[in-house]
């Protein structure tokens, strides 16, 4: 993630016990804006619509951005605020009890040849 020297941000977990940040990786440039993005796994998270303690898991994609001199940098990134259509990123939800989506996250490169890095 491109940042001005001395400027950074914290990534805050979504819920106690969800293992947010157990797996973290560079994602490449997933949204095609020229700045690398970050993957954060939370493999014990309970996605919306599933029972508590489902451990279906969630992977969060946090968009990187350039912070030109004098611009306001990211504040803390709260994973629970990331959803589809978010300017900060998006999330991929485990679909079933015990999926453990996000147990391991990694960059995939440009799998489909469209010039934009992909997440698997």
From TrEMBL:
This is Uncharacterized protein. The keyword Transferase does not apply. Keywords: Glycoprotein, Hydrolase, Repeat, Signal. FG-GAP repeats lie at residues 6-71. It holds the Pfam family FG-GAP. The keyword Membrane does not apply. PROSITE patterns: FG_GAP (PS51470). GO terms for molecular function: hydrolase activity. It comes from Spumella elongata. InterPro entries: FG-GAP, Int_alpha_beta-p, Integrin_alpha_N.
